[in-house]
Design brief:
The chain is α/β, with parallel strands linked by helices. The chain has 7 helices and 7 strands; from the N terminus they run αααβαβαβαβαβββ. The chain binds S-adenosylmethionine.
Length: 202
């Protein structure tokens, strides 16, 4: 049987670069533009899941589910939050494609409101970077995340010591020292290129 080639990004040429880095399986997922350009490629999502402590994980910004599916594929139970009902429903559909929907509970709303009601082992934070132009900022700061990264980290530390955050490769790494907490930094590569960092506060 001939395999149908889906090498052309269905959301337009301007996002082709993001499409190219997906596997054939990932290309079966449902996306909108933001969901596609902000998706954690599965290879990287699995690395993050391997390095994240505990079995109950809150993914506070689930998008179309790239990271949440990675945690679930590693057998973790996930509470996946997003304030977009559309993306949350795409994430549900995508978790079914990968056979992990039973491990993920989906919650729609503002994570700043929902997080204080939860008691997970770890919190994973992947707030928006302000669109595809984030690379034009010389030094990406915590205040460039939406919502503000410092408020997010302070809130998360009031819930658990184990907090993981995805950081763009132009992030001002010095900013991580202000919390007086131990952390580990992971470089995440895709096809030999540095994609971004992940910080693991333990
Ligand atoms: C960078 S994307 C997450 C990508 C995801 N980690 C993945 O791999 O597919 C950020 C998501 O955060 C959501 N978001 C933005 N502000 C939010 C908030 N206050 N509470 C919950 N979700 C929010 C956006 O709708 C967007 O889908």
């Amino acid at each position: 049987m001939t395999e149908i080639l889906n090498d052309i990004c269905p959301l337009g040429n301007h996002l082709q670069h993001y499409w190219d880095r997906l596997s054939r399986e990932e290309r079966k997922m449902e996306f909108d533009e933001e969901g596609l350009f902000s998706l954690t490629p599965q290879k990287v999502a699995l690395e993050i899941a391997d390095n994240t402590a505990g079995n109950i994980i809150v993914d506070a910004f689930c998008g179309v589910g790239g990271s949440a599916i990675g945690f679930a594929l590693k057998g973790k139970s996930v509470i996946a939050i997003d304030n977009s009902s559309d993306r949350l429903s795409m994430a549900k559909n995508n978790s079914e494609i990968f056979g992990v929907s039973s491990l993920i509970e989906f919650a729609q709303g503002d994570c700043m409101q929902i997080l204080p009601t939860l008691k997970p082992d770890s919190i994973f934070l992947d707030p928006p970077w302000g669109g595809t132009d984030y690379g034009n900022i010389t030094e990406f700061k915590l205040s460039n995340f939406e919502p503000d990264g410092k408020s997010l980290l302070d809130l998360s530390f009031s819930i658990t010591n184990s907090v993981v955050m995805r950081l763009p490769k132009n992030f001002a790494l010095d900013e991580l020292n202000q919390f007086n907490k131990k952390y580990e930094l992971q470089k995440n590569f895709l096809d030999g290129q540095l994609l971004h960092y992940c910080v693991y506060f333990r």
